Structures are given as C-alpha cells and as structure tokens.
Amino acid sequence: MSKRSKGAQKDRVEAPRGVNSLTEAKAWMAARGITEIECTVPDLAGVARGKIMPASKFFSSPVMNLPLSVFFQTISGEYPAYEGLVDSVVADSDLVMEPDLSTLCTVPWAQDPTAQVIHDAFHRDGRPVEVSPRQVLKHVISLYANKGWKPVVAPEIEFYLVEPNTDPDYPLKPPVGRSGRPEIGRQSYSIQAVNEFDALFEDIYDYSEAQGLEIDTLIHEDGAAQMEINLRHGDPLVLADQVFLFKRTIREAALAHKIYATFMAKPIANEPGSAMHIHQSVVSSETGRNIFSDEDGDPTPEFFSFIAGHQKYMPSVMCIMAPYVNSYRRLTRDSMAPINLQWGYDNRTAGLRVPPSTPEARRVENRVPSSDANPYLVIAASLACGYLGMVENLRATEPLEGDAKDLDFDLPRGLLEAVAAFEDNEPLAEVLGKRFVATYAAVKQAEFETFMRVISPWEREYLLLNV
Fold first, then answer.
1. Sign of the torsion angle spanned by Cα atoms 18, 20, 21, 26
2. Contact between 320 and 379 (Cβ < 8 Å)
3. What gap in Å lies between CA 7 and CA 10, rounded to an integer?
C-alpha cells in the first residue's frame, strides 16, 4: 500500500463519520473498541427501526432483514388495512436492508462502545422499496440528476424543552433551568435563556461532534424554552440523514438532564408552533453554478418556476409537510406559521421566503413544514414541488410586500383534507411514486381514526353539561 493510500485510510479511520468499505468499517470500529452496532432504517414517521447486534455478527453478515410492514406502521404502532396496498403475506415477507457505510458513526450516549449505521431497503430481487422514505428522496434526487441539476438544502429545526410528562392528560410545561426557575415570558433570541440549559447544549454539541454532525447555529426561538438548530447546507440525502440523527441526539441529551425535547408541531397551547424550514437551491451538475442566478446575478426563469411549483403543488403534499392532526394547530392566523403560499423577498409572514443573499447563494426558504415531519419525505416533497415547477415552466405570482398573516388560507386546514389532495394529484404521484402515495395516505387515514377515538378536554369542558 502506498503512503498516500495508508494516509487516506488513516484519515477515514480517524474521521467521526463514514467509511467506504467493510474493510475500512472494521478498522474504524476496532480503533474505537466498538462492540455493538445499531442497524437502523427510518420509517414513514422518521422513527428508527432495526436491530442491535454484536459488531462481529455485523461483519459476518452486514445485510439485515426486516419485514415490509415496518413501512406501514402508524405512529401509534398500528397498521392500516393491507387490502389494495399489498398482500398481507407480502407485508410480513423480509426485505433486504443494506448498510450505507457513509453514515457509520458512534452512538455517543451509549454505555458501551456502540456504532450506528443507516440502511437502505431493497426487495429481494434488488429493486428499491418504493415506500421507504430514504428511497423516495433518492428517487427525487435522481430526477434532478437526469436534468443535469443538483439540489442543495439547509434545514432549520425548531423544538421545545419541557418538563418530563408521564401522564398525557396533563399539559406540557417549560423545564426548570440552572436558575431554578422555568421560563415564563417569550425570550426570542435571548442568549441568557439559552444559557439556562448550557450543560444540556454542551452535551448536544459533544454528541454531534462525535457523530460528525455539523451545527451551523443555535438560537432561542419565540416560545418558552423553544430552541432552533440550523444545519449547514449540502446534499439533500446527507442533510436528511443528519436531521434524522439530530432528533434522536437532542432527545437523548435532554433525557440525560431529566428534560424532554419534543418536535411536536404545537406542544403547548398559546405558544408558537415548531417548524422545520427548508432552504433550497439548485446548482448545475456540470458547472456547479446556482441555476437560480444568471451571469449578471439576476434571478432566472428557473428560480421563479421553482417558486411557482411550490405555489401549485404544496397544498397536495401538506400531509407530508404537516403529517399529524396536531400539525395543523400550528397553522393559524396572526402567527409566524404560514397559512398561504405567497412568496416575498425577506418576508417571514409568507409561506415562501427569499432570504437576502449573494447571487451565488440565491435560494428559496420553504417555511410551511412543521418539525414533526419526516426529514426524508419533507425534503423530497418540497424538492418535488420545485422540480415540477421547473419542468412545467410555471410562472410565480408577484412577490408579496405586505403582511401575509391575514390573507385567506391557501393550505388544507386538517389532515383528512390534506390526504385527499395528496391522493388526487397525478403529477406528484408520478414523481414520488404511486405505491408510496397510496401507502402513505392509508397510514395517515389510520392515524386519524386512532385520534378520533380520543375525547379531548375541550369536549368535556364545553359539551359535557351544555348540550
């Protein structure tokens, strides 16, 4: 082996994240004394499913088998009727889960030296599993590649810190910080309010560094103990993987401090909801130039068509952008959460914002998605909207200069309305996959039925003795 090859292999062994082969993976794990590995695959909700095994077993058989049903499970652990979707025998048949070794990293909160790796799902004949979120995103990226384009994204993830809540009948409350007092008022962008949880955030940064996750900024958002972490821009699949890992990282770090971290869209009444804003641009695969800007630095027709695609198609992917009944509680008038599909230059009241930037960094910020969304699916859906806008040469409306908060709703008001729009949109089904659309819609309908079995405090408050 040459000195250069030895040096490159040494760098990969020392790198916190990702290798190119099983041989490198074995050296990487040996260097860290890894004894166990968590083999994960993200399901429709963005939950990590999979198996934990000894490192020796992983290397003797790195391919994992799980049933197709892992992609049909609802957030409550139930399943929709398989009729019309897949044969029940097929649903329980094993898929082939192959590790993406570029995602290999440690599990820094584990008691024993443990690694984790994200897997891709394939049928036994080698076809990608159409309902796997990671494969859905890969397919959308491939459509861009066929046009000579490479999408670039940067997610921003909002979440709340709350007191441990073991009885769901009680509302959530902000946790007590180092001062011994919980937050009461709004503390947007407050450094002192972030410092209340310094020990927690130090752990989050340490855990992130150990996994090779790159935090751009950390800020305090509008709500009581509401935080936001921004990630550096990059490849959509890499960033979706990072959000998938970040959510778990933040929850684990918070639990170690006897705090819950929640990505619910609207966890606390009378407090702002939590979003997952997606900054998006597209570059030429050949030149690397941002196709949203021309040689003079002016916006291109593709830029406006990308916006127009979101304006036309976003209502039909709202069940991905806002995937639960709770998600729609965030989208209300007189809040910073958008209720329509207007766009504007540096206008945070609009659903689509164009931030101030150089021509090279011209981008569109999708402010509609909530933080409870599956990162793979929400990035895939947003990019699908922009893709259709560009291939159909759609024209955007004029940019909005005023306040969009009091305009009419352009978006579905509830989950069932959103699912119906999702099922009825043929162009989106062609981009995202017809089998995925049918499966996802069935899962969302099943989750709604589960919700309808619950009697809320509002119903007891206003109906019990009055009707």
1. negative
2. no
3. 5
The per-residue pLDDT for 3 is: 40
Q: Which residue has the higher pLDDT, 291 or 8?
A: 291
d(CA 25, CA 150): 28
* Residue 148 zone, left/alpha/beta (φ > 0; ψ -120 to 50; rest): left
d(CA 131, CA 135): 7
Place 13 in a pLDDT band, splitting at 50, 70 and 90: low
Q: Cα separation of 333 and 342, whole Å?
A: 14
Structure tokens at 146: 């066929």
pTM comes to 0.94
Residue recorded with tokens 């009825």: 424
- Residue where the block lists tokens 């945070």: 348
Nearest Cα residue to 386 out of 305, 324, 467, 446: 305
The single-letter code of the amino acid at 66 is L
Separation of alpha carbons 175 and 268, rounded Å: 13
Angle at the Cα of 162 from the Cα atoms of 157 and 166, rounded to 5 degrees: 125
Given a contact cutoff of 8 angstroms between Cβ atoms, the answer to whether 265 and 327 are in contact is yes
Length of the chain: 467
Q: What secondary structure does DSSP assign to 224-258, as a single string?
A: TTEEEEEE--B-HHHHHHHHHHHHHHHHHHHHHTT
Separation of first and last alpha carbons in the chain: 82
Secondary structure percentages of the chain, helix, strand, coil, to 5: 40, 20, 40
CB 308 within 8 A of CB 389: yes
Place of tokens 């009727």: 81
Distance, CA of 41 to CA of 12 (rounded, Å)? 23
Q: What would the DSSP string read from start to end of 320-333?
A: HHS-SGGGGGS--T
State both tokens at 304.
């406006």
The 10s digit of each residue's pLDDT in 184-237 is: 767 777 888 888 899 999 999 999 999 999 888 888 888 899 999 999 999 999
Copy the structure tokens of residue 130: 């159409």
